[in-house]
Amino acid sequence: LSRGAGEVVMVEKHSAAARVLRENITLLGAQNAVLLHDDAFRYLQRETVGFDVIFLDPPFRQNLLAPVL
Length: 69
Prior knowledge:
Blueprint: E1 8-12, H1 15-28, E2 33-37, H2 40-46, H3 65-68
Parallel strand pairs: 1-2
């Protein structure tokens, strides 16, 4: 969002992290931010629209790029 994205979809599995993200979205008034409390792989299997850019973080060094794409 800080770089001019039209929309940002955040998928967070960890409950505490999702809560903090939601609080930050509210605090910043980020109306074009969507937060989903879900597993990213499960979400991507259902998603049909696609994305221009995907950041997967963490887990690190798990060779997850190919399965995500």
